[in-house]
Amino acid sequence: MQDYETKVFEDSTIIAQGGSGSTLEARLTATPDNGTAPLEVLLDASGSTPKDEIVEYKFDRDGNGSFEYTETPANHPDGVFDGKTTHTYYTKGNHIPTVTVSDAQNRADTAEANVVVYQLNTITIQPGPIDGKDAYVDVQYWPEDPPTYHGYDTTFLEVNSFGAWVDEALIQFPLSSIPYDANIVSSKLKLYGQGAFLDELATVSVREIIGPWNESTVRWDTKPPYGDYVSSSILTDELKWHEFDVTPLVQSWRGGTNNYGLALTTLDQRPSWEYAFKSSDYSDSSKRPKLEVVYSQTQ
């Protein structure tokens, strides 16, 4: 009794099938299946079946139509016949690795996986007087003083707490220079300035602005509403660049939320401290507020 092989002739093609009726099936997974370049990926075909009948794995790791890696029980370059290999992808885009498995009866089957490789890019948005939009608003300590406007202050964006006198800064960055298909990885707000009158470390927080405002007319009693706290930083009195993580906010804007900008406020009302940051109208363009955005792309 023949217990293993049956041959069927059909259009001059030989189809080999085990006597048990088992079907050869290739399976391929990629781990990880996405990430930034260079991306090392494990290509795993060990789930192909029936495993004990497979005698050859041939991998087209970069999807170009040729097999770069082959292993058999007698020849396995990585030291073990296990249907696995690794490959590092250096170019962004979608990659389709494949594996072809074969058995002793010359049956073969092919499976594929999908690997998405991103490329990281950094863009710095640092507008000047024309395309920049920033101002600071203050509580009037003396009620008899006229309203003040600080939308075109050529020196400072102030954030402070002097008892009843409080200043808050408003900034809105244009985002049109970020590619439409960008996936935001990180975003940092960077402000150049220093603190004064500090009797202890001060905390400045970033909040989302959730309504429109006009740079030339905004003041404390007409300032826009704020949303949730985004981040905060404990600042020193050094003259330097100070950073705030605003990644969730920029991701939200790119996701469709209206970009009304952000506000710098006092997280706690501690007395006698002030921060003065350079504004977009400052004469030295290298010291103006900037937004550094790291993003990935697949195309």
Task: Write up this protein.
By secondary structure, this protein is mainly beta. The protein has two domains: 5-117, Immunoglobulins (Immunoglobulin-like), CATH 2.60.40; 126-297, Jelly Rolls. The chain is built from one helix and 22 strands. The chain has one helix at residues 247-254, and strands at residues 5-10, 13-18, 29-31, 34-36, 39-44, 54-60, 69-71, 84-89, 93-95, 98-103, 108-112, 115-125, 133-138, 156-162, 165-172, 183-196, 202-209, 226-235, 240-245, 262-266, 273-278, 290-297. The strands form four sheets. Strands 4, 9, 12, 13, 14, 15, 16, 17, 18, 19, 20, 21 and 22 form a 13-stranded mixed β-sheet that branches. The longest helix is centred in the last third of the chain and has 8 residues, at 247-254. The model is unreliable at 1-20 (pLDDT under 50).
Task: Show the helix and strand layout.
Elements: E1 5-10, E2 13-18, E3 29-31, E4 34-36, E5 39-44, E6 54-60, E7 69-71, E8 84-89, E9 93-95, E10 98-103, E11 108-112, E12 115-125, E13 133-138, E14 156-162, E15 165-172, E16 183-196, E17 202-209, E18 226-235, E19 240-245, H1 247-254, E20 262-266, E21 273-278, E22 290-297
Parallel strand pairs: 4-12
Antiparallel strand pairs: 1-2, 3-5, 5-8, 6-7, 6-10, 9-12, 10-11, 12-22, 13-15, 14-15, 14-21, 15-20, 16-19, 16-21, 16-22, 17-18, 17-20
